[in-house]
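**User:** Everyone, produce a chain:

**Assistant:**
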Amino acid sequence: MSTHDPAPDSERAPLELTTEQIMLIRQAAERLRGEFDGTFNAETIERYMLNSQELLQSKAKFAMWLPLLIERLTRDRLRALARLEVGTLGKPAVLFLCVHNAGRSQMGAGWLRHLVGDRVDVFSGGTDPGVELNPAVVDAMAEVGIDIGSYLPQPWTDEIARAADVIVSMGCGDACPIYPGKRYEDWDLPSPSSQSIDEVREIRDDIRTCVEALIATLELDRIGA
């Protein structure tokens, strides 16, 4: 088992949690302890839960989904930390980034999961995460049989970026994390924000083309059509 201290968050203006939210967060901690039993001890998981909570509580727009966001962000951070400390098990990891993690990066992650399944570790995040996914993006992906409706925008963190073999940026500019030894791809694709459904479909299909090219360079076998 490993112990590890997450990087401290410099921005702290916590929201008041309701009794129900506190209960849901405790239940999430129990689930994560079960998932990562034998990899990380309870103390490490609690520290990452608290750090993720502090990170997300500083952004009031996350209030409605706070317990779910805390659980998902903590899970992704622990998955990333496991890659860094335990090993990759031969699987590459890809981090998709856009500004709000509400459109392009979610489509990229959705396509990669759909096409290669668990042959790759997939992460996504935003430099300034939004409140919810773009409904037109969710609809366009559903048209091709990919359900991303249950996902929510979230930030990227240091351990997630360090764990990634490939970092794909779509519109992040200078806000994209720079780490030595990483492979970076900058996909010049328009934001689906305020676009018509037909335009979102075009972006969706362009992202698929880019993801297929990425899969080929990673020499991964496809499972989806």
